[in-house]
Design goal:
Elements lengths: L1 E4 L1 H7 L2 H16 L4 E9 L4 E9 L4 E10 L3 E10 L5 E6 L1 H19 L6 E5 L3 H13 L4 E5 L3 H15 L2 E4 L12 E4 L18 E4 L12 H6 E6 L2 H7 L1 H8 L8 E3 H5 L12 E5 L4 H18 L3 E3 L3
Parallel strand pairs: 1-6, 7-8, 7-10, 8-9, 10-11, 11-14, 12-13, 12-14
Antiparallel strand pairs: 1-15, 2-3, 3-4, 4-5, 5-6
């Protein structure tokens, strides 16, 4: 019997600590050549878009796919289907909005763990929405953060975000009024927006800054400019094949000859110790997060195991 898990049950089971461990191990397996990730495919329908992405983590005993639809007026609806790698049986089907939010934050947390300076304590963030919350949570789990500077276009929304995140994370979170304030003096800069054009000037980055660019997974969208990319001594992506299809932040600099794809490494190589996360304290480092299927499979496997341990979910007759 397979297990069906609703959104509330996934939320109850999944912690950031669990997601960080699962995603870090997935990237390690990627670096060792033990994971398979299939880039996202988008099917455009008359009324909306169907998205499909699949991955396999044999060492964790699982493979699966995430499918989601984006239709105007209906929102975005996510489902993950998880399989047993040994038998091919379906282990679980789970609603995956919260799962996706947490695993996206966890990927930036893992990148920060391996690429940011160990003493990084000041974080600037662009974006104050649903995904921004777990970005901050994950980074605060892996670095001694004492101050966050949050910028968003809506003054009231950024004030509310700062207030809520300060209470949740027990760190000082300041809403700032200008993009430059969220970059100057920061050790880590996060972009998690819907922007189509860069949200800050790369010249503002301090030496030694680590950047997590996590909001854009379309070629027509950019959150960071050519200057930010050109300044990065180390550039990592979650999956190179998917980045070449979706990463607008890198497409434009590559076309201009400012960077070559051969210079870009997968985060899995860094986690597995096959490539450096940074070479010196003054390096600017960049992680481009597209959001990949092995992250979903790894976290879904963890949620499934916890659900079985705690007797959560509904049995359904699938095999």
């Amino acid at each position: 019997m397979a297990l069906f898990l609703r959104e509330a049950e996934v939320t109850e089971l999944l912690t950031m600590d669990a997601a960080l461990a699962a995603v870090e191990e997935a990237f390690r397996q990627q670096g060792l050549g033990q994971a398979t990730n299939h880039p996202r495919t988008r099917f455009v329908m008359k009324g909306g878009v169907f998205h499909l992405m699949a991955g396999a983590l044999p060492e964790q005993g699982a493979f699966g796919f995430k499918a989601y639809t984006a239709y105007p007026g209906r929102g975005v609806r996510f489902k993950v289907t998880l399989y047993d790698a040994a038998s091919g049986d379906i282990l679980a089907v789970m609603e995956a909005d919260r799962l996706g939010q947490v695993r996206t934050g966890a990927a930036s947390g893992v990148a920060t763990k391996y690429m940011a300076r160990e003493d990084a304590s000041v974080v600037g963030i662009f974006g104050t929405g649903w995904q921004a919350r777990t970005q901050l949570e994950a980074v605060c789990k892996v670095r001694p953060v004492r101050l966050v500077k949050a910028y968003g276009r809506d003054p009231e929304r950024r004030k509310r975000f700062a207030r809520e995140m300060a209470e949740l994370l027990r760190v000082t979170v300041q809403p700032v009024e200008a993009p430059e304030e969220a970059v100057r003096g920061c050790d880590v800069v996060i972009t998690i927006t819907n922007a189509r054009e860069p949200v800050f000037d790369g010249a503002w980055l301090e030496p030694g800054t680590h950047v997590n660019a996590a909001g854009s997974n379309y070629l027509i969208k950019r959150e960071i400019d050519d200057a930010a990319v050109a300044r990065a001594a180390v550039i990592a992506v979650d999956d190179l094949a998917q980045a070449k299809l979706e990463c607008g932040d890198l497409l434009h600099p590559v076309e201009r000859g400012l960077v070559r794809w051969s210079q870009v490494r997968q985060l899995g190589d860094v986690v597995a110790g096959l490539a450096p996360g940074r070479r010196s304290p003054d390096d600017v480092t960049l992680f481009e997060s597209q959001g990949i299927a092995i992250e979903d499979v790894a976290v879904a496997r963890r949620v499934y195991d916890l659900a079985r341990e705690r007797g959560v979910g509904q049995e359904i007759p699938l095999s």
